[in-house]
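pinned: reference chain
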Amino acid sequence: MNMLHLAETGTVATRRRAMVDYVMGRGNVEIDELVTRFETSRMTIHRDLQALSAQGLLRRVHGGVTTLPNGIAESSMLYRRRRAMREKKAMAALAAGMIVPGDVIALDDSTTACCMVDHLATMGDLTVVTNSLGIASTLAAVPAISLMALGGRYHPTFDAFFGLMCEQAIGALRVGTLFMSVSAVHGVNAYHQEQDIVKAKHALMRSADRRVLMADSTKFGSNALNRLADLSEFDVVITDDGLDRAMRDRLLDHGVTLRVARLCAIDTVKPE
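pinned: its structure tokens
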């Protein structure tokens, strides 16, 4: 019975992941289309959509479902992991080039920071401070990395720790470089949807000698609820070459030190 339950649970999870991918690829999908596509009942589809909506992965509308981004969807870890991955990988590679063995660095809970993990694993001796459970779990298996995981209240949507305990732990530390990201950039200001996360990011910024913001080009011109900082408060802002020239010029005129990651760099395949 237990094995049957596990198998059924795995089937549901697999179907729901496939459903998210299907809807994301189309933007808007009707219920009847999902019933046909996944060969199941309308009741099952409604249960799936209720669960996915509660996680902020999909948004139900009259007669169907959509992935049009809203504040909740932007916050979802699974949504963010699927969003702008080429851009994030390019920025992560550029950011990793700023690190040398022996450095003490901090990584926030962002999926962009998560993309740096593979680079860190091959760098030798590093001390890494993070409130991300996913990053900590991966780096814990790397012998050359001294890991400092920040405690606090676990937030499953972000797979990370926040709250007073987290902020106090950060306040007791000093790191060389902080690598972090945000939900949105509007004008020359960075924003995030969640107030508790803004507090943790502020604490990380205060603890760092050097602050590096990674924001892919799709985040520019978008909105989130809480203002985090002026972009000029970061020592370096990394984005990708999808950012338009007018915005680049505006940032430079504002005194922002800008570094641009080339997307073609991650698409290059070395000949065998």
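why pinned: Residues 133 and 159 are 6 Å apart (CA to CA). The chain has two domains: 3-68, 79-261.
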